[in-house]
Amino acid sequence: MEAVNGTTSVTSNVGPNSPNDGIGSFGTSFTGTYQVFDVAASMVLNSVDVFATTTGTVIVELLNSSGTVINTAATYNVTAGQANSTSTSVGTAITIPINFTIPAGTGYELTLKSTSTATILRNDGGMASYYNIVGSEPTFTDNWLFDIDYWYDFYKWNVTVTGACASVRTLVTATVAAPTTNPTVTSTKNICQDSIVLLTASGSTSSPTTLLFEGFESNPPAGFNLNTNGTFSDFYIEPYYIEGSQSIGLVSDSWDGTNIRITQSSPINLSSYTNAELTFYHICASEPGFDYGYVQYSTDNGGSWTSFPTSAYTGGATLQNSVVSFDASSYSDWNTQFMINIKIQEQRPATSLWKRESINLTPYIGTTQFKVRFRMTYDFLQIIMDG
Predict the structure, then answer these.
(1) What is the bridge-based pairing of β-strands 43-50 and 155-161?
(2) pLDDT of 33-43, one tens digit each?
(3) Which residue ranges form the domains of the chain, and what is each CATH number?
């Protein structure tokens, strides 16, 4: 993400206004001294102020980081009336026209050329607060003495930043829900450093849509089909529940350990949504390491089935078989209640034993024949899975 201002120009003054700034400690400077600065975006240095104690010439040069002169301002002649500062008092500011266009770069030096003849003031302390200011254009970084308590020669830099004033790009993640109406945004505005612009949007509202809800309060359930190859009754309405008054239990007394399952009756079209999630409550009290409850999906109306990958799971269980599947060891309290104390199955489970699971369906957005199913596999003997 970046903020760009188009072609807006912003003119401002940067740096101290006079030698009275800081702690007010100043003295006369000498030629060849300079301020070091960086430029983040192309700018124009329009002018600087100096404070002269004698008449003479002031010549301002711009050097790059290699010490090469890249621009020289016109010679300015300080008159007697302007030279009204002393080594102990600050007089009238003298504005020197510069008009340097300076491209982005680091280590520039603005120098009082050695052939200048006027004597001007510098600061001798308390100037550190003007250096290395984040967002300043330019950013002052050093000076001739390599001591940021000092400030040399040039005050009240007047600069104009023009062109595309862009912020540093920052990676962001945005989640956008499909609006029920087309949003409108206030007209485009030009912005730049230190600007505050209010943008407003209207007309876009969205709310979650429940595409399938099954509380297993009826037999058979409305939203799922019961499928098994077993020879005995493999499903029954449980007295255990997390909400309502009952749930469905997957119970096998048969020898078919692969096909006890409940399957979504009708497919769902996910093509018009931007994100989706499957949530459910269950207790999978199956023998650890032998019997498992799988959560699976189909994108072709049940023609083929795949177990959800662990990357789609956003719950808190210990998953089994490197996919979204569970047994009693998936939660420690399941293991304690149902495996260590096996007879506890005859009692109504505590509410805390019901676990809410969530699976991210966003990778399947775009499919039009989406289904889910819950499937049990086991070796032999009776198993129970409530949900």
Answers:
(1) antiparallel
(2) 999 999 998 99
(3) 10-161 (2.60.120), 224-386 (2.60.120.260)
